[in-house]
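Trying the structure run again after the queue cleared.
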Amino acid sequence: MHDHRKLGRELDLFDTDPLMGAGLPYWLPDGAIVRHTLEEYVREAERAAGYRHVYSPVLGKRDLYETSGHWDHYREDMFPPMDLGAEQVVLRPSLCPHHALIYRSRSHSYRELPLRIAELGGMYRAELSGVLGGLTRVRAIHLNDAHIFCTLEQAVEEARAALALIARAYADLGIRASRYRLSLPGEGGKYVADPRLWRRATALLREVLDSSGIDGSGIDYEAAEGEAAFYGPKIDVQITDPAGRESTLSTVQIDFHQPERFDLHYIGPDGAKHRPVMVHRSVIGSVERAVAHLLEEHGGAFPTWLAPVQLVVLPIAQAQEERAHEVVRRAVARGLRAEVSGPGDGTLGARVRAARLVPYQAVIGDREADAGLAAVRLRDGRRPGAVPVAELLERIAARAADRGAELWPAA
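Done. Tokens:
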């Protein structure tokens, strides 16, 4: 069983400092590579699915969150407001109010819908010290978030497509969903008091779940009261870590509340104003929680495309170091992440052990250097033997491009 907190420090991926504060991790270079690669994967997947990316500020006036309903229903999880002259500003607890304003800033025709707005943005939650832990519960969150503004008739298909996008990402990342949950409101004043909107949104999400899945025959799910967002029900994709702890990674929500609060509209084919539906969705949730889960799922042995270092070149002696650096230069030119571990780093056996989590090792001795070869060692223990450097780089690039799990498939 792996603990991402221990692995993160051992592998120099991330750390914390009490002077920065609890729940505020910083990312070291190798961790930044994993995070950047994951972020770019999600952006690429979103672009291919018709999303357009935006940036919005991490601060907002208190009035913004009063309009959205966060101030009334979510205040205990927000940081206190800061006084700036006659105004009060707040570190945002969510991106959706900002995206609602971005939508509202321009007039929209029904021909533009669905309009899919995505952002990987920062937000802040005033978590108590006792619940903070590693990357799974933090105060500074970087959320893969998106909001789809669409007609009522488009909402089910958009939510269904979001679930399919989540499933594809999980397959590429090697993540398994443990269950799907339809999160409904519970007792108390946490939730917006509008039974009509709750019924409409819940009925649509049930339709999404009942018509999704591989063959459209539906997804097995469980309903859970008390787990909804304050403004509406949601589909939660649950994951389970090696210790058996369950958490939510991805979500899909259908929201009628915020379009009303922000008076959002589009011009319909009849020339009149109509209210859009707002579909919230997150493919990998927070980057922090996603990396924590991937660390524990793979034990630090990331898939080739996600590994901080994809190839380490091991010259046996100093005489082969220049050739090793040449291999690395060629690898970098192919877009690969590679480095040299030379004799100054220890014996060959020690260097092999130090690079045990790197997918590919290329050992270069006199014979390999003279013939333009590399003796290949794989992370799984196999030794395919000496191959031309060009072939090795082609194989690694192919595995990184197709995000395949197999390191050395049969020809």
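The chain is about 35% helix and 25% strand. Worth checking whether this holds up in the mutant runs.
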